[in-house]
Amino acid sequence: MTEKKPNISFYRMSLMTRLYFRRKMKVRLFLVKTWKVISLLHDLILNFAVLAVFVLFVEQFFIITKLEKPTLLYKIYVGAIHGVLGTVLIYLGVELTEQVHLNFRGVALLLSGFLGGTVSIVISGVIILISRVFIEGSAGNTVQIAVSLISMLGTAFIFAKTPNYFLKWLLSSAFILLSYYSMVIYYYPISWEALAPYLLYQAFCIMFVSLFLLYLLRTRKYKHMVGKMERDMIEMLRMQPGFTFMINKHDEKFEYVLIEGKLLEKFGTNPKHYIGKPIGAESTRWDDPELMLQKYALVWQGETVTFETSYVGASMLVTLHPVYSDREVTGIIGSAMDVTDYRSAERKIRENEERYRILVENSQDLIVSFDADGTVASVNQSLCRTFGFDREELMGKRLADIFGEEDARRWDEMFEQTVLQNTMQKFELSMTLSDQRECDYVVSLSPFHDSNKEIAGVTGTLHDITDLKKRKEAVEANLAKSQFLARMSHEIRTPLNGIIGLSLLMSKTEISDVQRGYLDRISSSSKSLLSTINDILDFSKIEAGKIVLEEVPFDLEDMLRRLTDTLSVVAGKKQIEIIIDTSDDLPAEFIGDPFRLEQVLLNLCNNAIKFTDRGHVYIEARMDRMEQGFADIHFCITDTGIGISPEQQARLFSPFSQADISTSRRFGGTGLGLVICQHLLQSMGGVLHVESKLARGSKFSFTLRLAVSPSAIVRPAVLGMSGQKALVAEDHPLMRHNIAGILASLQIQVETVASYSELIRRLEPAVDGLHDRFDYVLMDMEMEDMNGMESWLGLLRKLDRNTTRVISLTTVFGHEEMVKLPSDLRAEAVLVKPISRLSLFQAFQAMVHPLEWSEAVEDASSEIAAGHEMELKGSILVAEDNEINAIVISQLLQRLGYAVTVAENGHEALDWMHRSAWQFVFMDLHMPGMDGYETTRKIRENNRFNHIPVIALTADAMKEAREKCLKVGMNDILTKPVDEERLTEILDKWMAYRCMEHIAGLDVQRALKQLDGKVHIFQYVLRKFDEQYREFAEKVESAAERGEHAMTRRLAHTLKGVAANLAAERLLSAVVELEAALEEGRAWKVQLDAVQAEINRITGSIFALKI
């Protein structure tokens, strides 16, 4: 049998089939493995993507909103969100093997712990455990839960305590993986090979998340830093003094990218309106926009420019820099600085330099600047002109070279001291100039310094004092002249006062008519000489500027009344009328200098009387207006004298000049009167005006603004005379009109007649009863048709003296004749012309209210009769070194009933003060040894003599002399030559002060002690008490009737304090009882009557003593 051969083809086929299936199986296995890898990568990428997206958005949100101290709500939010993330990651878990399931819920826990701490990680863990129940059906056993809790707490602790970011993530991830691995090994026997990929994926995921989170954190940090730097830079730009801007070019147009600066706020520029907008001529606030566009274009070419232009009217210094990128200009940075103030200061410096240069060049002083070595650096024109050199000739030379040898030595010495001592040197230098003039200079050499405070040079100023020295010598000569005049006037007035005083004494003796005529001429000549001396002294004081005005209260009407007394004597026997016309609205009291005002008026009136032989002198004082406590008073003195020509008026106010030489010879005088008046009026704020025509008379007028005393009132004009009638007989029409006006202001019905015969005819019907009788007849005693005493007696026969009172208007001489008549033939009142409003008012007041005048005298005498008579015969000490003056005042005082002792000097006066009791001391100011001032100081040092009035004897009645006298303790001043009337006035005045010791109801000594012995203050207090409390009872009763009980108590309480201050014990006791009754609501009328009675007792004494 043949052996069958194998079927090779089949075998091959079978082998190939097996190979095919085997390869197919390998491919399938490869594909399966590949799919598993792809599936794993897909799941891993999905997990990583979820984490990346979560970290990118959610984590950034939590990082942004995280506070330095996160709130509990924030931690809850973090825990909840990350718990949800962990749940999602469980759901997206990847199965590595049957035993190993990979998910990244641990990463969610790490993120939660990183951001929220323990609270957040616990919340996240709880949410994940709950989600496992729903997903896996179980959260694990107790051990697994405990391990999970420990891993979470441990992770939170590591995050909280580990400062380093990487170490924080490494330790926390290691701790949580180790905890999980330990638990897995414990429960599941899983090999390391199976667990290694799990741990690797977890580590990789944690590293990915931590690095990605770190990137986000650092990116945000850098962005924050960049943002902060940008904000800081913008803030810095905004706070810079000027402003900075950045410009880019877009579509061939420039536009602002940035513009910031403090200056923008000043100009009201809002950067938002310009940023990002094309810059055009209409869209900029530069005053020259075309210039700015040209500069931008120039800088875009690569140049840096600095220029000055204006921005909203302010000068700006602008700098523009190009900004390069890849060597191409991509922008412009510009800065602008406001240089307006700088330019203004620069301009002022230039102006000041120019002004200084002009000042130096035009200065009359010689000004020169030197280098430190003493050579001339610059000079002004005055120096060149003075020394006769050109400027170029002096430059670089020593100035001392042009001086004389002695002057050069002195100059070099002082220049060296200036440099060595580094201080200004001032000295005088005399030199002979090129024109041979001798000039005196005050030289000032002052060093000036460079920036290192080293001496750079010296500035010299030479001030010409040649004329100043001459003026000083003239002033010294004038002072010597004034001192000489003062000494000589004292030497002249001392015997002159004696002549006037002795003449007065002699006139009181029995002498013949011829002797009386001689004596009158002696007295007149003496007074004329004294007036001349006083004019010269006043003018001397005016020249020296030593006239000081007073500011004291005074009564203008009373001053004018005193003026009438003087003018009546000055007019003498001249047949002229002097009329004083004042308005009835003048306040009772002004504040000013009455002495100087009276001096001016007296001087002007004296001139008017002197130069008027017939006619009248009309003196007028009227108030133009009153406002804000000041009154404008217009004074006018008009005469019908010789007049003054315009040429004479031109030199009228020149010293020592009169209208012409014949005037001086005829009328006398120094020619200083009007000069003095003009100066005094100008000092008081007025100007003296003159209007005059030759042979027609003159008019001098001025207006003064005088302060009105706050307590001043218009003088009351009503005396209860309404309806009464007066007949005025006066032949001068102006005088007649003036008197009628005054009477009309007193509400008297006035009729006037112009002659004696007309007067008699007017009175005839009144005797027959056909007409009403006249209550008053005022008659001029010097009317043309009168015949002396016969006419006077004829008038009296026509009148019923029981119903009609007569007032005679006469001269000084007529007054003496009237006084000599029997009382039944005298007039009820005698007024000496000129007649003032006040004198006429007082005359009627005495006739209408005679009791006010007579009872006052009776009351005063009843209280002080015993002491008063003794005081009138008391002792007076006179301190006077001049024998004649001592004789005059002694004789006058003795005629008044005083015993007089004379001390020849101050030491002797002090000795006499201790020997006897004195009522007065008269103290001459200028005595040898101890003068009157020092003597008075010594007297006032002894309290025993405080009550004795000390009266100064002086020929100087100026304010300074009075103030000095009062300052040392004198009480009053009696001017020489001694006037008997003034002497009597002073004695009466200070006798009243002595009589104040007898004021009923007051302990005067105790009251004065409370006022430190100031008598004048006590006198003022008494007057105010009399004004305010005279009608106290009426005030209390009136307040009670109105129901103002608090007012009644206040009035009583106030009076109680006043009574205590016045040491009025009885009044105080009565007021205390009244106040108690008012307080307790008891009947108080009896107590009020007692208080008013005591007030009446005190005020009665005050009135009687004329305090």
Automatic annotation (TrEMBL):
Membrane topology value: Multi-pass membrane protein
Modified residues (Phosphohistidine): H1053
Domain spans labelled Response regulatory: 725-848, 875-991
Ranges where the Histidine kinase domain occurs: 487-708
Alphabetical UniProt keywords: ATP-binding, Cell membrane, Kinase, Membrane, Nucleotide-binding, Phosphoprotein, Transferase, Transmembrane, Transmembrane helix, Two-component regulatory system
Annotated transmembrane regions: 44-64, 76-94, 106-130, 142-160, 167-187, 199-217
GO terms for biological process, alphabetical: cell wall organization
InterPro entries for the chain: CheY-like_superfamily, HATPase_C_sf, HATPase_dom, His_kinase_dom, HisK_dim/P_dom, HisK_dim/P_sf, HPT_dom_sf, PAS
Reaction equation(s) it catalyzes: ATP + protein L-histidine = ADP + protein N-phospho-L-histidine
Domain PAS: 352-422
SMART domains according to UniProt: HATPase_c, HisKA, PAS, REC
Official protein name in the record: Circadian input-output histidine kinase CikA
Annotated compartments: Cell membrane
The protein's assembly and partners: At low DSF concentrations, interacts with RpfF.
Assigned EC number: 2.7.13.3
